[in-house]
Amino acid sequence: MGGTPPADMLDALDPVQVSGDRTAGVWRGHDVPGPQSRHVEAYAWGGLTARAASRALWLLVLPFALVNVAGWMAPHRGASAFRGAVRVMGVVVTGLYVSFAAVAAMDFAAYQCGGASDRARASCSVDTWWLVGEGGVAPDPARRVVVGASVPLALLALLWWLTRQSRRAYERWGEPGSVDLPSSDGPAEDGLTHHGFWRGQGYAVRLAEIHLMVGLAVVAAPLGQTASVLSGSRAGAMVWWTGVATVTVGMALAAVTRLRRRLPAGAALGWGLGLTAVALLVAWFTATPPSPNDPAILPGLPLLFGFFIPTLLPGVIAVFATAYWHAGARQDPDRLRHALTPATVVQTAAMTTLAIQSGVVLWVARWLGDARAFHTGATRPDIEYAQAFEVLARAIPWALLILAASAGLAWASVARRGIDDAQTRADQAWSAIDRPRGWSDGRDDPSWRSSWRRAVTLPSGSLSALEWGLWVTASAGVLPTFVYWVLWTREKMRQNWTTDHIEVDVGWLTLLPVSLCTWLLTAIPLVAVFVLRHSLTHPRTRRTVAIAWDVATFWPRSFHPLAPPSYAERAVPELKARLQRLWRGDVDQDGQEHPGAVLLLGHSQGSVLVTAALAALPPDAPIPGRLSVVTYGCPVRRLYQRHFPAYFDDTLITTAVDRLTPPPAGGEDGAAPPDALPAWRNAYRDTDYVGHRLLDPAAPLRGVDLYLPDPPTPFHPTGDPAPPTRAHAEGGYRRQSTLADIVAAEASRLHHALHAPQSPRTPHHLEQIHHGQNHLGQNHLEQDRSEGEPARRTSPI
Question: Which parts of 590-638 are beta strand (E)?
Answer without folding.
Answer: 593-594, 596-603, 627-632
